[in-house]
């Protein structure tokens, strides 16, 4: 049985390394783009949640104001006639 010896050309090795390095750079750029898109979507979701929370707080405050309004004022913000007290 004969043993084969492989000899590598320095030029081929260099070309393979450059090709592999280029592929790695492209892959890294794709990953960075993907991560950036995810971060942007996360910011969008965070912003939407913040707006929803603020809206719910405003709704709650409005409900509290309606529940604690002084007597003599109806829901249409028009005053109703109060009893006439002559002193």
UniProtKB/TrEMBL annotation:
Residues 60-87 are annotated as: Disordered. It comes from the Eukaryota. This is Uncharacterized protein. Residues 64-74 have a biased composition (Basic and acidic residues).
